[in-house]
Amino acid sequence: MEGSSPRWDTLFRNALVFDGSGAPPRQQDVAVAGGRIAAIGPGLAATDAREVIDAAGRWLMPGLLDIHTHFDLEVEIEPQLPEAVRHGTTTVVVANCSLGLAYGAQRRDGADPIVDCFARVENVPKHVLRKVADRVDWSDSAEYLAHLDRLPLGPNVVPMIPHSMLRIEAMGFDDSISRDATEAELQKMEQLVDKGMREGYVGFSTDALPFHYLANRPNTHKTIPTQFAPYSELKRLTGVVRRWDRVWQATPPKDDKLAIFRNFLLTSARLHGRRLKVTAVAAIDITTNRSIVRLGRLLARILNSKLVAGLFRFQALAAPFKIWSDGVITPIAEEIPVLRRLNECDLEDREGRARIMNDPAWVAEFERMWWHGKRGFSLARLKRWLRLDDNVLTRELGDMTIDRCPVPDWSGETMQAVYERLLAWQRSGQGARSEAEAEAFASFPKPIEDDCAFFLHLLRRYDTDLRWWTVTANRDPRLTKELLFDPLLLPGFNDSGAHLTNMAFYDGNLRTLKFAQADGLDQVARAVHRLTQEPAEFFGLDVGSIRVGAQADLVVIDPRALQAWDPEHTVHYVYREAFEHHQLVNRPPQVVTQVMIAGHLAWRDGAYTPMFGRERFGRVLRHRDHESAVPAQLAA
């Protein structure tokens, strides 16, 4: 009717539409009204829309899911989660690795669990964690959902029940890290998990990586609470998750292969009467141990076989596993006991680390660690030669690249190159590139004994001013690509929101699309499915599809910019005002041109829209059947 108002809010015209199902894309228009998709088809009338976005030559797809994040913290400080949204991520799963805020700050009896549990495991500075804990005003899983509902969220947020915090809630902090639960405490944990499932939590998370330690004294030698739970506790709690047909997200006890197999057999319908959905977070293409990827894929085949009748998915990272270190402040140091002692000191405690590094007994232990398997004839030497090493740090200077330090000449160079130049300088007194380098060389023992002494001197002299990186996994892009499209794995493990200065995998979804782009549009359609509808179905979420009536979470990608993008050159070290701290981010230019969340444009042509961060865009997503409040096997 003439003069009537437009019936659509936004119309995307002439896009190549990937609907999330994996079907080949089609050239179509997509109309949005009231936060939902109102119409799909060619030639929709532009006059029916208030705003028309010309998407010719671009891809339109459902908003992307990031299924392994630690945004629980950042969402309290900057609820719009800008680094996620600019990458086309419109749904994030939080409370991974047994850590979360479902039960509030839990500051009882002098304990500060948010700081204690998150600081070393997720490498988030304590002052940031205290800032989060100070803001907490809830103490219950239902209250937490209500709190999230009130925030001006950017993407949709999907919480799980975190096991470490569950143990603390049922047992108290000190007991949660010192003993098994009593029968009464186990029953309380079961009741709390059941309550969370009834409230719509999509799953339950645990952690078994043996190098996840507490950060506050006197417990810096202890691991986080989830690791004190015996198998019998895991079995009972995942039994609740199984009854609700929700997800158990776990990490494997990496040093105990029998425990890995036993734990993940909990997925089996053959053994337990009904399958349990399990997703396991583990880097499996490890540089120092080539057997893990084969064993991991074999395990996935066994657990998903007809014989076992499970539903199990490892998560695959789309990027080289590149880890930055500030001196030894890095996740990989936690795996090595002699370096772990340095990580027990607070980030600012340079004097504490210096005392340790100048202790002759510690130096002797450091030297034994450095040369283990690198000299002589031993089983360790054979395992190293066969690439079956137990630790992820190669201990090779050629694998360690200096990002920045007080000697500008070293930025971008491997430590091996600097070491060799030092040796030449000590022989001839010449060859230093600058006065700064000559001064640095003069500080080394002369003659320098070996590369072990070289690395130790760097740590002593520069501490956290020495920033360097290494790649511990996913060095082979062909294998990385193969894993991303293995139907028994899920793209994920981005760890977004954690390891503020150590990792930057926010671009994992875009890297997956880039891998697929090289193989044609059918493979892109498959990649879109793997990043949208497939994980949404796995977690029981009503997102991930372009269909009439669906929530309008949409992303527009410029395929030419995607093809031209070099992911290794878009990582930046920036100061985030929200954190009052530096952070690693990556910001692909012009790849994502528009991001819409619930019908509202959040990102457009390289900038956030004016209302982003001020109004609520996304929402807290519960499991799609939560309103029934009845376990699936009881719903007739």
Automatic annotation (TrEMBL):
Its cofactor is Zn(2+). It comes from the Bacteria. Residues 524-600 form the Amidohydrolase-related domain. Gene3D superfamilies: Metal-dependent hydrolases (3.20.20.140), Urease, subunit C, domain 1 (2.30.40.10). Pfam families: Amidohydro_1. InterPro entries: Amidohydro-rel (IPR006680), Metal-dep_hydrolase_composite (IPR011059), Metal_Hydrolase (IPR032466), Metallo-dep_Hydrolases_sf (IPR050378). This is Amidohydrolase family protein. It comes from Sinimarinibacterium thermocellulolyticum.
